[in-house]
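Chain X:
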Amino acid sequence: MGVLQFVRRSFNPDEVAILGQAFDKACQELDDSVQPVSLEEIIAKRLIMIAARGETDPDRMCEAALVSVGLREPARNTGR
């Protein structure tokens, strides 16, 4: 079913496509071991929150969602 089963607000078709891309990318980047469905649900909900704040880049959305659930370290700003 993908990310759409968790959407509780309106997104236009372009936003839905971006959400789907970010969700698919995040799921592909999960550890190869079996992940609980609840983790996918949490990631989907985080992606929706990120999209609701106005983010439109699926790569940044994916990264932010994975960081938010502790599966990635936040990018460090090197100040360069």
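Chain Y:
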Amino acid sequence: MTSNENIGALASAAKAPAHRPITTLSQRSTPVLGARYWVLITMCSIAGCNLGDFISLYLNLGHWMGLAPLAVLFAILLIGERIGRPSEMWYWALLLVVRAAATNLADFFSHTLNIDYSWTIAGLEGLQVLLVLGVSPRQKDEASGIYGRPATDGWYWAALAIAGALGTAIGDCTAETFQLGTAASTAALGAIYVALLVVGFRTRWSTQASYWLAVVAVRAAGTTAGDWLAFPDGGLGLGLIISTILTCSIFIGMPMVWQRRQADFG
């Protein structure tokens, strides 16, 4: 083989896509941590709360059996992202499925098994810490200095599911055990979420704690906001069918209308 052929072979190898696990999305399918990301994840938290309740209550699958179709859908979406065209819609669809599953997982512990909220929250919090330790650090964008994209490996999706369940338990505990109701709970938890966002943007999301605390907080606020929309006790009482269709439609439409610009970090 000539030297020119050697150079050509090395160039081809460099251009070949590196092998990635099935759970890891391509870079083009993964959003950056700008303002757009947190607005969308907020809407996802509300929509996922309603969708999870709709699956377990209106489809009569219960909290445990309701996880099965969501797990199948999650696997189908991962395969679809791998063989289909890269798009952020894959990430947001997966996020919605995980959020809905997290709602049912938390309700399974607190409602089906009747485990006290304090024990449910403590157990999920301990598990969350262990899972976050395995999550790969986010890559830093040299131009903006922001640690921009989540590393969507298997540890990430597992940590995201437990963070969602933890946030759901915290939201329900705030509204029910502390008797604040869904409206006041949404306001209180939303304020905590905003405060964590301010800290995260100021530190450019440089730590795992800044990201995951904000994720748990938005899940908690999203739970009480979703319940406020759906149920009549202190809320609008739209019903699960209407609230699920409304919130999921808004969430699905938002990333289509609000397109990410090239190298947009917020």
